[in-house]
Write a sequence for this structure.
């Protein structure tokens, strides 16, 4: 681990105790986020992106609902899974902040927007009340909110959903966390605003060396914003690569499927969008072998019987597939023949 490592998740398992018994939603996930690095986390609905990020902040009810295993090292030494509730609370919103998909639940309905942002700023930085308010206006402006000087006096219910989301983002970024966890933060926003928010995140990432864990369904956003990408499938990482390698030479059949399903702006629009066949199995019926095998066009009997490990390739990519080398060779042959 280098001294630049901000977050080091090691063999994380998240088990939920449900009415139907124990389910393991996250099963042995390991990844790192360095200072100043934006790591994208992608995968279909139900793959465990949100549970992974919420486990990092320990947001589930540890008395009744959840058991964690593994280690989550923050800045090299602190294992977040071992911290007391109180210490964990200090880290949340201070060193590590999260932007959720649904902002309403995180804003206080009886306090003005300006007060909430200013309060968050004063909690983390040594500034006067006046400076904090000015900062709040500045942050609102940066997130593209019109007439921010007036908006600071509004209450959350005066704002539209998209505006509230921007307020949440302003509040989170105003605190200048070392690590930002963003779970589909721009899905509900229109494209212009989305672009502004992504610029804002990217700017703070460069200026403050803020590390970012960016969860999204949108591979276009990943290509634009992220440095490295983690691909999840059914509670595990199936591929990890730099953003360039992921798009140039995806190794896992699942990643290939995800990339093929990006709508193309150019070319034959009448061509049917590629969609990966089938659906993500439920946590009660996890396949014995490779978890993706029942949906994989390359699967054989080995895949159905034995689960592959995540292995590192010579080009620093990680992949969890028995046949990735063979598939790459076959594709190369095919490309040579057809060119
Ligand atoms: N509180 C919970 N109790 C039991 N199971 C849960 C709980 N929260 C999530 N799960 C299960 O964990 C798995 C991963 O869910 P998660 O919300 O992380 O998916 P996701 O990748 O974020 O999907 P989406 O793209 O739809 O947001 C799912 O099978 C989900 O049903
Ligand atoms: Mg989610």
């Amino acid at each position: 681990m280098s001294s630049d490592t901000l977050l080091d998740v090691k063999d994380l398992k998240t088990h939920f105790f449900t009415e139907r018994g124990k389910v393991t939603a996250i099963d042995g996930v390991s990844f790192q986020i360095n200072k100043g690095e934006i790591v994208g986390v992608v995968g279909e609905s139900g793959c465990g992106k949100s549970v992974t990020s919420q486990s990092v902040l320990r947001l589930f009810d540890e008395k009744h609902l959840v058991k964690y295993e593994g280690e989550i090292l923050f800045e090299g030494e602190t294992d977040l899974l071992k911290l007391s509730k109180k210490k964990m609370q200090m880290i949340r919103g201070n060193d590590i902040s999260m932007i959720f998909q649904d902002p309403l639940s995180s804003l206080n309905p009886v306090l003005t927007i300006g007060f909430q942002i200013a309060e968050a700023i004063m909690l983390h930085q040594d500034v006067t009340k006046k400076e904090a308010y000015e900062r709040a206006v500045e942050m609102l402006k940066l997130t593209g909110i019109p007439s921010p000087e007036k908006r600071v006096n509004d209450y959350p219910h005066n704002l539209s959903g998209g505006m509230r989301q921007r307020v949440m983002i302003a509040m989170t970024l105003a605190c200048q966390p070392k690590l930002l966890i963003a779970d589909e933060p721009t899905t509900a926003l229109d494209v212009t605003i989305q672009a502004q928010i992504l610029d804002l995140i990217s700017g703070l990432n460069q200026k403050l060396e803020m590390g970012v864990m960016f969860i999204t369904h949108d591979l276009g956003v990943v290509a634009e914003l992220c440095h490295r990408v983690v691909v999840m499938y059914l509670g595990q990482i199936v591929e990890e690569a730099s953003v360039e390698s992921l798009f140039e030479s995806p190794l896992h059949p699942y990643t290939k499927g995800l990339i093929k399903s990006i709508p193309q702006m150019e070319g034959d629009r009448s061509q049917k969008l590629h969609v990966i066949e089938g659906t993500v199995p439920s946590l009660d019926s996890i396949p014995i072998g490779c978890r993706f095998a029942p949906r994989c066009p390359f699967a054989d009997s080995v895949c159905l019987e034995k689960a592959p490990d995540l292995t590192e390739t010579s080009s620093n990519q990680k992949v969890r597939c028995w046949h990735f080398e063979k598939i790459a060779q076959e594709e190369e042959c095919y490309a040579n023949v057809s060119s």
Observations:
- Residues 252-338 form one domain.
- The pocket of magnesium ion (ligand 2) is lined by residues 49-50, 183 (CB under 6 Å).
